[in-house]
Amino acid sequence: MFAKRISQDSVIIGTPAKVNLFLEVLGKRDDGYHDINSLFQAVSLFDRITFTRIRYGSDISIELTNDADVPVDGRNLIVRAFRLMQDRFGLTDGLQVQLEKNIPIAAGLAGGSADGAATILAVCGLWDLGLDFSQMAELGLEIGSDLPFFFTHGQAMVGGRGEKITETDFPTDYWLVLATPDLHISTAESYAALRIDLTKSKIPFSFRRCKGLRQFVDTLEHTGNDFEKVHLGSFPGLGRIKDELLDIGALIVRMSGSGPTVFGLFDSVPETKSKRLFGKETGRVMVVRPVTLPVRLP
Ligand code: ATP
């Protein structure tokens, strides 16, 4: 996350979307969560959030500064993260939030988690709570499995249900085209649909010796996204989007998270304008790059 203090009581945070360069679901745990094995990469698509500490009342308010269909009540992960921190640290002041929502919602890009993580970072800074980043990640995990990743530099192998994080240093010299079709795929339903698949054997692969982009892509080719197989069957449009991305030169085409966003990975600037690509079915299309992020308090 990028964080900037703009006054004693205000910070602005840019919090990124992530893609899953690969994603394996390993099995269901006793606590009901699933263990995963995934390579997360932050990309150059940010929600921009201004947090202001309010020294009268203990309420939180969220104002959307652009047109986004996201709840601003107790369902919002910003509210949930703030309430958790109020309870945990006995905070009595309130919080005013202005949210510029740029990350597509419920799209497999973890935009809600990114906002929840930004809230934890902002509150730690504004209240001077003295937490380190691993403590912030632990708090984040209480809100959602994807939150801890956002306290890294932006690229990590993620295991467990999201709490086992190993930062990595793989190439970032590529472009991604994100295509987010207008399909409603809930994460919970995606996991439910996966259940029958969980006994399958895992493909062995190693990233250890990846040097340049070519090798990295070759290794990624041996991986996949376990949700993709499930959704391709139910939503044939996703297969057509994949074909279109391959047509314009993507080296790898894959679903992110539990979808429906599909990304294409390119070794040069992708030509998204000239083709029949990106018709109605393709939905929202964005060209982004991997980003490396600072990890510091505002
Ligand atoms: P993941 O990749 O972790 O599965 P996602 O990208 O599919 O997540 P999100 O955009 O994080 O999904 O949102 C999922 C749900 O969370 C939506 O139903 C949305 O209404 C709700 N939500 C709560 N807070 C937010 C927020 N700040 N931004 C976006 N969605 C939010």
Overall description:
It contains 7 helices and 11 strands. It has helices at 77-89, 111-126, 133-143, 187-194, 213-220, 226-234, 236-247; strands spanning 2-7, 10-28, 34-54, 60-64, 94-100, 155-159, 164-167, 175-180, 252-255, 262-266, 284-288. Helices cover 26% and strands 29% of the residues. The chain starts with a strand and ends in a 10-residue tail after the last strand. Helix 4 crosses helix 6 (226-234). The mean pLDDT is 91. It is of the alpha+beta class and 298 residues long. Strand 6 and strand 7 (164-167) form a beta hairpin. The structure holds adenosine-5'-triphosphate. Adenosine-5'-triphosphate is lined by residues 70-71, 75-78, 105-113, 115, 146, 187, 257-258. Adenosine-5'-triphosphate binds next to helix 1 and helix 2.
